[in-house]
Design goal:
The protein contains 8 helices and 7 strands; from the N terminus they run βαβαβαβαβαβαααβ. By secondary structure, it is α/β, with parallel strands linked by helices. It has one domain (20-244): Rossmann fold (3-Layer(aba) Sandwich), CATH 3.40.50. It has a 7-stranded parallel sheet with strand order 3-2-1-4-5-6-7, sandwiched between helices.
């Protein structure tokens, strides 16, 4: 009588072993979760953010190689940061919060800042990345899916969301062999969502749990898993990847 042997456990090599990932906006939410996931996959991570104290705590959590505290929308600060980098492999830029305002209340200066952050900043990051990101590495930007449907107060963020896939496709051609991709997220249960919804956060969570096909809300870790996959898969460039739990297929 013979005894069947247990199947051997195959050890896989970490997907980002020996690579360096820069997280612009990496002190919380999606940026921090992506840093954590990338580090677990063997990468060195560099975190940036506006708040030094929060950045230091995040760096300690994920064992970051280094940090840099600055406002990415400041052109001089962004340029100085990239000028101080050695060769890197991937950059994730997490977006700032959307500017919602009905037509009668739109503020021109605020609108300019919002467009700079959502449209010009990816261009600026790409310009600085050329020559510093290794070929086959990726620049990864963020947008949302919610503003694809017209709504009161969503004119500006809808326009930016519509423009970004076209921008990213063109940047992928101009920055090649660096890869450029876009993640479009639905509601993500993150500190940013909490700041936007305030006391309505729990109500929104329950609504999504009841209606989304996946019957749960999207977490920052879900987006981080997609981000690391896009970094690791060198066949992906010039594309937009939706992650919304099926929100867009709902009537």
């Amino acid at each position: 009588m013979t005894t069947a042997s247990a199947p051997a456990v195959t050890q896989r090599e970490p997907e980002l072993l020996g690579q360096t990932v820069v997280l612009i906006g990496g002190s919380s939410g999606i940026g921090l979760e992506t840093a954590r996931r990338a580090h677990a996959e063997g990468a060195d991570v560099i975190l940036t953010g506006r708040h030094p104290d929060r950045l230091e705590r995040a760096a300690n959590e994920v064992g970051a190689l280094r940090t840099a505290a600055f406002d990415a929308t400041d052109p001089a600060a962004l340029g100085a940061f990239f000028a101080g980098l050695d060769a890197i492999d991937h950059v994730l830029l997490t977006g700032g919060g959307p500017y919602y305002a009905p037509l009668a209340e739109l503020d021109r200066e605020r609108a300019h800042r919002d467009f700079d952050e959502h449209l010009w900043l990816p261009v600026a990051v790409t310009q600085h990345a050329v020559g510093r990101v290794r070929g086959g590495g990726t620049l990864l930007f963020m947008t949302g899916t919610g503003a694809r449907r017209p709504g009161i107060g969503e004119a500006l963020i809808s326009a930016a969301s519509a423009a970004l896939p076209a921008l990213v496709a063109n940047l992928a051609l101009e920055a090649a062999p660096i890869r450029v991709n876009l993640i479009a997220a639905g509601f993500v249960d993150s500190p940013l969502s909490a700041s936007l919804l305030g006391g309505d956060l729990d109500k929104r969570r329950e609504q999504l749990r009841a209606t989304l096909p996946i019957r749960r809300v999207i977490e920052p870790a879900d987006v981080a898993a997609l981000a690391v996959h896009i970094m690791a898969n060198t066949a992906l460039t010039g594309a937009t990847y939706d992650i919304d739990g099926g929100q867009q297929v709902l009537p």
